[in-house]
Every structure is written in C-alpha cells, then in structure tokens.
Design brief:
Blueprint: H1 2-33, H2 38-47, H3 52-63, H4 67-78, H5 80-87, H6 89-93, H7 99-104, H8 108-115, H9 124-152, H10 162-178, H11 183-199, H12 205-226
Helix pairs in contact: 1-9, 2-9, 3-4, 11-12
Length: 227
C-alpha cells in the first residue's frame, strides 16, 4: 500500500521535480554568490522552505537585517499559505504525527498538486504525505547542487532570480486551464492589482489574500445555510 502511494505521489510530483530542479539550483547558486556554504543553503531549504522568501533572505543575511524585520517580511510574503491549509484542515487533522510536517511543507506547488488528488483516490492522505516529502527532498537536493555548482563554476547570476516568477506564472496557467469557474482567479487578480496600488509591491500580498478569501467565503457560507 505504501509503495503504491509512493509511486502515485512520485508520478504526481514530477512537475514539481522539474520546476524545483531549476529554481532550487538557482537559489543555491545565488547563495554561493553571496558567500554562503552549501550547508547553510541546505539548512535554509530544510528549515525555512519558503521558496520566494528564501531568495529575499539572501540579501537579508548579507545585509545583517534584524530578526524582527525578517520575521515580519516572512509573514507578509508567506501568509497565503495559512489560507492554503484551510482547504486541508480535515485531512491534516487525521494524519497524526504527519500533521506538523504537512503544515511545514505546504507550498504553492504541493497545494496545487494535492488539490488535484480526487477525494476517492485510494490512500489519498498517504499520497499527499509523499508528495510533500518528495517535494521537500527535491528542493533540498537542488539547493545543495546549485550551491556546489555556484562555488565551482563562476558565472554571471544576473536575472536568475526571475525563475521563481516564471514558476508562479506556469502554476497559474495550469490552474486556469483546469478550473471550470474563472471568477475566483479574476477576482483575486483584480483585488491584487488594487492592493498593489494602495500598499505597494512589498506589502500588498497579505491584504489582497485577506480580502479575496473573505469575499470568496461569503457565498460559500450562504450556500451552506441554504442547504
């Protein structure tokens, strides 16, 4: 049963593997350029594991930024993952000791993949767990490989951080093609643009997510009451 779940998780996580191989190596190379050793990059990828924020963390480490500012920035950049977890509250609560790991390893990519797993999928929660575990491993290994390569092969790193933006665009395109109802995506995009104009590029993410989630929850609650 576990082997079957692992095989299914690996099959579903192949897109994450392909993306993390490049993005994780890009992060590792940038860490090497910043003068960090491979084990520092590995520790960040295992303990922090926030993708986009790890790229920002490089400049924070180099500039001696205070822990308070780092914590606030991490919250603002990754607050969306709190909303992701709401989708899987029932699943996570039934996974025992795996629950903390599932929370820690929740990313945009694992959220998208686990969301696509049908409710009637055999060993669904086992598959979700292995998707999270494999994705975590992909990112950590790619980070180390990138950091080692960055220390051995000197090259110009200009523009390499754009790979994270490209990854998000690809995820959005995939979700857009699969979704039958386009209104939530259009609503989120519109609110994000308004929040960007009001709060600026460094602080718009969390307000936009709060507003979008609040608006999307209202019709759902009305529908539940009607039933």
């Amino acid at each position: 049963m576990k082997q079957s779940a692992l095989r299914e998780a690996f099959r579903r996580s192949i897109p994450i593997l392909c993306s993390y191989a490049f993005v994780g190596m890009a992060y590792g190379m940038m860490m090497a350029e910043a003068g960090q050793r491979w084990y520092v990059a590995l520790l960040a990828s295992v303990a922090v594991y926030t993708g986009a924020f790890q790229f920002v963390l490089i400049s924070f480490l180099a500039g001696g930024t205070s822990l308070g500012l780092i914590a606030v920035t991490a919250l603002l950049m990754n607050g969306r993952q709190l909303f992701y977890s709401i989708t899987f509250l029932e699943d996570f609560s039934k996974m025992g000791w795996k629950k903390p790991l599932m929370i820690h390893t929740m990313t945009d990519e694992t959220y998208a993949v686990n969301l696509s797993i049908p409710e009637d999928q055999p060993n669904r929660r086992e598959v979700m767990f292995y998707v999270a575990l494999l994705s975590w491993l992909y990112w950590a290994v790619a980070t180390v490989c990138g950091c080692v390569a960055g220390n051995l092969i000197p090259w110009d790193m200009s523009g390499i951080d754009f790979c994270m933006t490209a990854l998000f665009v690809i995820i959005l395109m995939g979700q857009w093609e699969q979704a039958a109802d386009k209104k939530p995506a259009l609503l989120g995009g519109g609110i994000a643009l308004i929040a960007l104009a009001i709060f600026g590029g460094s602080s718009f993410m969390l307000p936009a997510l709060l507003a979008t989630s609040a608006i999307l929850l209202i019709p759902n609650r009305k529908g539940e009451k009607a039933q």
